[in-house]
Amino acid sequence: MNLILLGPPGVGKGTQAKRLTETRSIPQISTGDMLRAAVKAGTPLGKEAKGHMDAGGLVPDGVVVGLVAERIREPDAKDGFLLDGFPRTVAQADALGVMLEKQRRALDHVLCLTADNDELVKRLSGRRTCTQCNTPFHVTFNPPKNANVCDACGGELYQRDDDREEAIRARLKTYEAQTKPLIDYYRAKGLLRPIDGLGAVDQVFGRIARALG
Ligand code: AMP
To answer: Which fold has domain 2-27+74-115+176-212?
Structure first.
């Protein structure tokens, strides 16, 4: 099954993606995680990406399209994938369409998680992420069992540079301007599955499971 998880920053894409990959045995392909790994490793791509990321803007389309094109050809994505945080612009969505067509593959569903901006700001400012496996937690809504320690792998948790107030506001604006048009784009293709992102992690996951049938 080939899936996209669409939605604003902080809506829970990463959390739900982890759940989905456990139950559907398809890999989570998060361009944000891939870019953060490149930043951490200090690669030329990471150096180029960092400024855009810290400012809450988008990394150029060509860079992320290249990353995804390589990643979906890997053996673990042969029977399907879950794209988390990609595409984020109409140009990326068009490029994805072309690359899938070349490989004779097609999207099955675009899951679009929704929540209002006040809720997103609350979620992002309390978010903590695992340094090792990228599992997201929240200090109040989804705390780890032991403070600052990942339940999944025991790694240390940290606050992302772009989960601070100024960058959060910029990221929400970027979403409105550049990514939100993808809702109509995929609705027109009959692929959009809107999912209410409010409520407990399990509740939202139940809605996703029902949408996938
Ligand atoms: P995320 O972890 O999905 O919130 O992504 C963190 C940051 O990485 C974003 O704010 C962007 O700066 C960058 N990024 C991630 N995915 C993309 C993408 N598909 N296109 C452009 N920039 C991206």
So the answer is: Rossmann fold (3.40.50)
